[in-house]
Amino acid sequence: MELVHVVELTYYPAEMTYMSGEMANLEEVVEKKAHLQIETLASEMIPSKCRGEITVHTGVPFKEVASAPKELESDLIIISTHGHTGLKHLLMGSTTDRVVRIAPVRC
Predict the structure, then answer these.
(1) Among 15, 58, 83, 95, which one has the highest count of C-beta atoms within 10 angstroms of its own C-beta?
(2) Could you give the 3-state DSSP secondary structure of residue 16?
(3) Region 22-44: what's the mean pLDDT?
(4) Do 98 and 62 touch, CB atoms closer than 8 A?
(5) What is the pLDDT of residue 57?
(6) How many CB atoms lie under 10 A from the CB of residue 66?
(7) Minimal CA–CA distance to 4: which of 75, 73, 77?
């Protein structure tokens, strides 16, 4: 079992003009922090005999999740959803919907 988590970083022009030493490595810092948080969550929620590797990616969530099976040679994607409905779903869309549309299918 592979546990994949995707961090989507949003940059704004004002943030791009000044970057201190740590800000220059923002993706690395965020990925490390996310990895620690996911490890903690996994240790609390998933029995140790079922746990596998944890991978943290930075990018567009639906693209990263949909491409993970090819990279990891997986046959199944299990993904959660927040269950947004109505206007919020229409405006924001759903990562799960997008993954279902573009994920590779093996027969």
Answers:
(1) 95
(2) helix
(3) 84
(4) yes
(5) 87
(6) 20
(7) 77
The secondary element (H helix, E strand) that includes residue 2 is strand 2-7
> Three-state DSSP class for 23?
helix
CA atoms within 13 Å, Cβ hemisphere of 17: 3
CA distances from 59 to 13, 15, 32, 46, 50 (A): 18, 18, 15, 25, 27
Average pLDDT for 5-17: 70
Q: How far is CA 6 from CA 9, 18, 60, in A?
A: 10, 25, 8
Q: Where are the domains of the chain?
A: 1-59, 61-107
DSSP-assigned letters across all residues of 46-106: S-GGG--EEEEEES-HHHHHHHHHHHHT-S----------HHHHHHH--HHHHHHHHS---
pTM above 0.85, yes or no: no
